[in-house]
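Milestone 3.1: sequence recovery, worked example.
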């Protein structure tokens, strides 16, 4: 089974239809500190919600040789996503992020850098980054980048 992807303009504004609408490419460029491709939405999902991934323009090589320097947003508003947010908040002893949306915390999914879980109204989002040899990402750097993205997302959703 293949993965379907659609390029997203990420214009922002009040018409948020997918995770790609939560950030503009220009905003992601500024957050990540390097030019990024427009967000690509995964259109072949088997779970509710939307997923968008912005990859760096300086990516070279085979996918498994040099993984992309990227930022992703996985968004959903189902009861199942809310229960997952609540259970992870309790079970994994996450690091609470104060003053962000209606609830937020960092958690480590088990490998790599931590992800930021964010609740804004009825939307639950996971925001994550990945690094590569050109752009290594430490835990602290991942948290800084994810927080910067989350601040813009909350502003867009609440504004």
């Amino acid at each position: 089974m293949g993965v379907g992807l659609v390029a997203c303009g990420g214009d922002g504004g009040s018409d948020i239809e997918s995770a790609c609408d939560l950030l503009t490419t220009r905003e992601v460029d500024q957050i990540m500190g390097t030019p990024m491709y427009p967000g690509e939405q995964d259109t072949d999902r088997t779970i509710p919600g939307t997923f968008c991934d912005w990859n760096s323009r300086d990516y070279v090589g085979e996918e498994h040789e040099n993984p992309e320097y990227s930022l992703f947003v996985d968004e959903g508003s189902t009861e199942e996503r809310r229960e997952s947010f609540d259970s992870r908040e309790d079970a994994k002893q996450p690091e609470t992020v104060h003053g962000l949306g209606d609830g937020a915390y960092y958690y480590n999914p088990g490998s790599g850098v931590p992800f930021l879980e964010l609740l804004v109204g009825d939307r639950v989002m996971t925001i994550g980054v990945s690094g590569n040899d050109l752009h290594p990402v430490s835990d602290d750097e991942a948290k800084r980048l994810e927080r910067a993205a989350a601040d813009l997302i909350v502003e867009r959703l609440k504004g």
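The chain has three helices and eight strands. Residues 124 and 136 are 27 Å apart (CA to CA).
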